[in-house]
Design brief:
Radius of gyration: 20 Å
Largest sheet: none
Structural class: mainly alpha
Strand content: under 5%
Number of helices: 5
Number of domains: 2
């Protein structure tokens, strides 16, 4: 944002920016709860799957990794493994990671 010499416009724009930042921070704070994070990733993965079925999704797959890690952290090992297996269908480089890391869980 650039100041152009008008205090009231600048104040209004800064207020909008600060309000947005506060709302975003509040949404991130909710992720302190693993159950909340799990629920949000479940919704995200279903949305991605739905969009993929409609041919509208070709984005990154890193959310599958994050969703699986949350499943492991909340003790839902089988669900995390299923997510990683689905990720494998979309990301051929997963095998090396799986052999080294996921056995730890």
């Amino acid at each position: 944002m650039e100041y152009v010499g008008n205090d009231s416009i600048f104040r209004e724009e800064i207020f909008k920016f600060a309000t947005y930042a506060l709302k975003y921070a509040e949404s991130l704070i909710k992720f302190q709860s693993l159950n909340y994070a799990n629920w949000e990733f479940v919704k995200l993965l279903w949305l991605k799957r739905f969009k993929a079925l409609r041919g509208k999704w070709n984005g990154p797959v890193h959310d599958y990794y994050y969703a699986a890690m949350i499943k492991f952290l909340i003790g839902n090992y089988d669900s995390g493994v299923r997510i990683l297996q689905k990720w494998n269908l979309r990301n051929g480089t997963r095998d090396e990671w799986m052999n080294k890391i996921y056995m730890t869980f």
